[in-house]
Amino acid sequence: MKTKWFGFNRSELPLQHDKANLFLQISTAISVFLFVITLAAYFMISSVILSWNKNIIDGLTVQIMPSTDTLSAEENTMRINKVIMCVEGWSGVDRVRLISDQKIKKLMSPWLGSDADINALPLPKLLDVRLKNGKTFDYEAAKESLADVAPYASIDNHGIWLKKLIKSARSLKVLSLFILALVLTASVFSLFYAVGTSLRVHQHIIEILHIMGATDGYIAKQYAHISFVITFISALVGTIIAVVALFAVSMLSAGLESGLIGAASLTGTHWFVLCLMPLLTAVISTGMSYLCVKRTLGKML
């Protein structure tokens, strides 16, 4: 007699009462939690590298040092415009923007305080220069050109020090992939252990079912059904805990963001992939359970 259990047909095998199920539930929840956290870290590192390549490598900063002489506002404006015209004439420059005093004050506020009067400080004026392609831009030619026109100005090339950061970030990506592979491997062995234990426990029932005409495929389907339910629910729990943890970390680190790590975020596509983990885990576990049972029964009987 077959009855319904979580929407699936339940056979004579009492699989829902297996002690191995608890092990499978806990191991699946933990594995999915670690997998989601690590995969989210991989996505965020990738977004940071992409942002660095787009916004920092394809850009540079020109510093216009303040004059040692007392100049009028008009003369200071002429000094700045002279540098802007020179920079705009460089090959490969997309656009040039003078960073406002308010923006500089905001950048300096962590060190000087929000009430600091930056006009009273000998701070340089800054030009944010966007490049069409930072990898092919001729920095040496730009430095020579700027030195001839405005020796009081200098170029700050972000790409020199950023290459080391990108190399380190890529190493973290490789490490995260290695961790994902370890978690996936541990999950596979946990599933095989739980299925193998259950088969040994119910071996006498399986032998009777074979005598009554049950095929290996019929028995494997029962294991596949119970595996789907257990792994889906467990993976859902692990995913929910991981998502809550990600939101908690995001809230706690909101005030610590800087220009370098501020791009460490998850897109809608990333969240969609993470939320698919319970279903993907259940589907993969179902297929693996089915194949594992058929293979094991072929050796046992």
Explain what this protein looks like in three dimensions.
There is one protein chain. Strand 1 and strand 2 form a beta hairpin. The relative contact order is 0.18. The protein has helices at 20-56, 73-88, 101-112, 139-149, 159-201, 203-211, 216-252, 268-275, 277-300; strands at 3-5, 8-10, 59-64, 93-98, 125-131, 153-157. It starts with a strand and ends with a helix. It has 9 helices and 6 strands, in the order E-E-H-E-H-E-H-E-H-E-H-H-H-H-H. It has a 4-stranded antiparallel beta sheet. A two-stranded antiparallel sheet has the order 1-2. Mean pLDDT is 82; it is low at 1-9. Helix content is 65%, strand content 10%. Helix 2 packs antiparallel against helix 4 (139-149). The chain is of the alpha+beta class and 301 residues long. The longest helix is centred in the middle third of the chain and has 43 residues, at 159-201. It has 2 domains: 3-54 and 165-300, no CATH class; 58-157, 2-Layer Sandwich (Alpha-Beta Plaits), CATH 3.30.70.
Report helical residue fraction.
55-70%
Total number of beta strands: 6
Distance between the termini: 24 Å
The major pleated sheet works out as: 4 strands, antiparallel
What is the molecular shape? Answer: elongated
Q: Count of DSSP helices?
A: 9
Structural class: alpha+beta
Please list the strands of the largest sheet in the order they lie side by side. Answer: 4-5-3-6
| Low-pLDDT runs | 1-9
**Overall mean pLDDT:** 82
Element order: H for helix, E for strand: EEHEHEHEHEHHHHH
Counting structural domains, the number is 2
- Global Rg: 31 Å
